[in-house]
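Entry for zinc ion complex. Fields follow.
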Amino acid sequence: MDRKILAIETSCDDTAAAVTVGRNVISNAIYTQTEHEKYGGVVPEIASRNHILKLPYIVDEALNRADMSLKDLDAIAVTDGPGLIGALLVGVSYAKALAYSLKLPLIPVHHIEGHICSLYISHKNLAPPFLCLVVSGGHSHIVVVEDFGKYRLIARTRDDAVGEAFDKTARTLGLGYPGGPCLEQLAKDGEAIYTYPRGFKGEKHLDFTFSGLKTAVINHMHNMDQKGEQYNKADIAASFQKEAISFLADNTFEAARREGISKIGIAGGVSSNNALREEFQRRANEAGASLYLPDAEYCTDNAAMIGCAAGFAKATDNPLELNANASKTLF
Ligand code: KG4
Ligand code: ZN
């Protein structure tokens, strides 16, 4: 019998709790901190303080929506890294206290493993081996999921994550926060008429680099501004987005070819981008591969994915020793 798990996720600016049983999400509660908007990015100290204020209510909401009380639970799961240290500490401390007082097992979950496991929620029959592109604000990884809980890293970004590049380019374009969804929206009104250079051309490895793309867009706009040239920001957004997506797709499908894998998943905040979803679907059809995408609510940070990952994992032997680890590794 699958355990009833209360999962907690506070690694960045979303305060989230969920109740899961295996791959099934019984409830999924989230408070998205809008307090960071006016700073144009996440302010770690504000994120931590908000988690302290909101987490007890979000846990209550998750339990209420699941029509459960604390005594119905079999285990507590929590993201213990990677992420913002202060933000992680709030979730980890709360989860430790709950597990200790309720005498329940405590299951630590790696945030990226959580994103990968969001695919199991949306695709109940998906099983390893498959290839997964993890694209978020902090990561751009191509991973072979060899088995449940067993991962092999094939490629990663050497500098900015793709979500970070979306956010920074959006800021240059004068858009709101978070930049990714705003840039996607603007790009719908534009044409990808500009070509930006790609790094690592002709290299054998499949790593990414996005900081050059971001800088190319910034320089392009500054040049046109200085010359007094008219331009449409939507065309710039569309051109940036097209290049970012085609870089991700080229390397992911090449990795799949090299590994002989025909099941491909995408996870993480950027996987909610519809242009990316459509382009990957087009390429998957062309390559005869199966594409697995998370439902929209499980793309960006959430606690349901942490509960789902915990369902495949072991509890820690020393719950009171668990600590937040801002740079926890998975590979
Ligand atoms: O997975 P996530 O919620 O948090 C991290 O683990 O980082 O990902 C957040 C990132 C942000 O950079 C955000 O701008 C990006 O995902 N993002 C998008 C879209 N929605 C979220 N990027 C492009 N298009 C979107 N629609
Ligand atoms: Zn995330």
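NOTE: Residues 128-296 form a domain with the Nucleotidyltransferase; domain 5 fold (CATH 3.30.420.40).
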